[in-house]
Amino acid sequence: xxxxxxxxxxxxxxxxxxxxxxxxxxxxxxxxxxxxxxxxxxxxxxxxxxxxxxxxxxxxxxxxxxxxxxxxxxxxxxxxxxxxxxxxxxxxxxxxxxxxxxxxxxxxxxxxxxxxxxxxxxxxxxxxxxxxxxxxxxxxxxxxxxxxxxxxxxxxxxxxxxxxxxxxxxxxxxxxxxxxxxxxxxxxxxxxxxxxxxxxxxxxxxxxxxxxxxxxxxxxxxxxxxxxxxxxxxxxxxxxxxxxxxxxxxxxxxxxxxxxxxxxxxxxxxxxxxxxxxxxxxxxxxxx
Length: 288
Prior knowledge:
Elements: H1 10-17, H2 20-23, H3 39-45, E1 51-54, H4 59-63, E2 70-75, E3 82-86, E4 102-104, H5 109-121, E5 130-132, H6 137-145, E6 151-155, H7 158-164, E7 169-173, H8 174-178, E8 184-189, H9 190-193, H10 196-214, H11 217-227, H12 235-248, H13 259-271
Parallel strand pairs: 4-5, 4-6
Antiparallel strand pairs: 1-8, 2-8, 3-6, 3-7
């Protein structure tokens, strides 16, 4: 499963699209979370074995004193994958240009926390921006396309497609502003992670990750679309997005969740007052 479906998760998608799981003898059933089909529930009831997630997704259960057996065992991205796009073309961009402007911000828990932390790092007050909650990712995109807002905060390839359509220009990267951080992950239950299948899967994942690190973006995009993933995205836009994530360094890691980057994640959520404690990694992360 996945919390969200995006080119940002190419290393995970390539375990399927690259044929790695099939070649190892695994059948695959891939779905994306919906309001009535939650990753958390499906992992716990055993109907899902592995899901794209975020390390920070486990903070909620810890904060509510309801810890569970879900653990994050692999890193997908070690950078935030969101961008700021401007309705106007800007030769140079400083984050203080957002002051007083209408900005459509993705209000999903982690993207918004990261955006606020990026503003903090850039010495811009959240309260000095006219923040707009336009709804889910599709609604954000549609409303910006229909003329609402001066800037929009989106995950790739949405802002790259806006740029390709001549409706905006990508001016900043939240990932670049924050630097290395434990962002998106792969999660599973402790029970499943203690199986031989989990070790096989992790080794397959590392092969797909390696392909994303070294292969040409066009080759990766072609495999994804040939498999049926992201066919709603213009091919050249998808290539540009994957290349951008490669350059940003999202996938430059060994597959394990880095503890320095986990501590930066704690910094982000502590700053946003979304956690009361700096939770030990063993409460959330399991190395296999």
